[in-house]
Amino acid sequence: MGIDDVTRDHVLQTLAEYDDLSREVFLSTYGFKPARSYLILHDGRRYDSKAIVGVAHRHVNGHALGPGDFSGGAATVVPVLTRLGFHVEGPRAEKASADSSFATRLLISPAFGSAESRRHWKDTLDRLVPFTESQFAERLTDDQLGRLKEFHPDGKARFWGATPGHDGKMAAVRTGDVVLFTGKNHVRAIGEIGAIFRNSSFADVMWPPKQGGESWHTVYSLRQFGPAEIPYATLSALLDYRSTFMYPGQLVLSGERARAGIDGLLITTRTALEEAGAVALPDTVSELPVERQHTRSTTVERAAQKVLFNREESALVIEFCRTLTDTTATRFASAAGICDIFLNGPEGSELIEAKSRVERSYVREALAQLLDYARYAPDAVGRLAALFPQALDPKERHLLHHYGIDVIHRVSPGAFERVPAPNQAREQMRSMWESRELSH
Q: What integer pLDDT is reported at residue 284 of this predicted model?
């Protein structure tokens, strides 16, 4: 159990203990240092936010969290406290409170560790289940079958699920939430939830329980599914977990922690694109440009298969974002799609598109996407940049510079070089970036 399980009553009890002991004794007793940035303002008094939340966790399961057990700040403690109705003072507390409404949940599901889970993986993730065939369909309600056909009109889908012990966690999970399938110290695959429902009979056909064992009665299909190879340490750095955390059980993360994982790994769901108007809803036909192809597609389902996760670009973005200071890296969704990096820092806003290769087709994609996304940016964009794993040939660099776009490339592990566009080209293009009245 983590800090998301702390309730308002838990915090109030801890505030009372803080008052009884005094600040100095309270912090000394539990091993916390005085807060430097974020303070709880309650009944006219101020309290150290991380210490209060860590000690309040004792009321969840009898175990207080120490300062090394979790991360404090705008992305973790502040959203928890504001969700519980407390006012937090700090440099980014107000923004963190607003951002904590991030709707997509992030599930972390052990799926490749035990022999049983590996067998289930082979049966319903490695291959598609023909759910319209009689042995499956006769166990589904009309509503469940209709919902599955809505997301998977060809009658086949990948499936995963959860046992009744996870009912509380799974109750809020919805279409479009993201699942990281884990095992052997890595995230092994990433999926996007399609239809989700409870049906023990249907689950038992796919995953027969051991004698006396539980059914996986919560079942969900995967709208999208793709392999990954992400070390636990990389995921833990994004989620502010300890580097040695082994992800032993099912987790359902929400708010800023879910955002940190989804945006940090550059995951783009079909549902988010639909909600932004970037792709058509199921059962509709539209004309959609497909990256890295020179043909038009009227089959949105086929086009959407490539948007979930790009391992190379994700790794590049994670490495680059670790070099940033005094700036906030986010993403935004629009009718043009979901951008890779949107920075808000002391020098203004910057939009960055990452590419895994440096050939001309990738450079042209970056150019087109940057000019498209810039029209929809939440704030006026001062700079555009394209991020690459190595230096570009002069010809490709000049193409981007002609349109005022900076080039950033990796020079060594953890080190990047920016080759800025000429100021004149950037200024000529900025009027177009900032001309947004025709965008919507």
A: 41
